[in-house]
Amino acid sequence: MWRSLFLAFGAYTCLLGVETLAVEKAVLKKPPQGQRRLIDRDEIVPPDWAPWSLLASGAVVTLYSFTIPRRVGG
Fold first, then answer.
1. Is 73 domain-assigned?
2. Does residue 74 belong to any structural domain of this protein?
3. Dist. CA 14–CA 9, nearest whole Å
4. CA-CA distance, 11 to 30, in Å (whole number)?
5. Helix/strand/coil (H, E, C) string of the chain?
6. What pLDDT digit, counting tens, does each position of 8-62 carry?
7. Structural domain includes residue 53
8. Which of 18, 32, 61, 70 has the greatest number of CB atoms lying within 10 Å of its CB?
9. Based on the number of CB atoms within 10 Å of its own CB, is 7 exposed (0-12), middle (13-18) or buried (19 or more)?
10. For residue 38, which phi and psi values (nearest 5 degrees)?
């Protein structure tokens, strides 16, 4: 279970890093009339360090998941 959890977390982090590398900014659409906004900003701009940090940490966690034995407790 731990192995699959770390593999999923690492793969998700790598994909998020690739996405922030490809996307310059994300523009959020306005909510329907009568609903409250969860975020005050209309667009999200990832910082310059985000893509490479996410890719590197995701790769490290993914590689770590392959080193976890199949049976941790036995």
1. no
2. no
3. 9
4. 30
5. CHHHHHHHHHHHHHHHHHHHHHCCCEECCCCCCCCCCCCCCCEECCCCCHHHHHHHHHHHHHHHHHHCCCCCCC
6. 999 999 999 999 999 999 998 887 888 887 777 789 899 999 999 999 999 999 9
7. yes
8. 61
9. middle
10. -85, -30
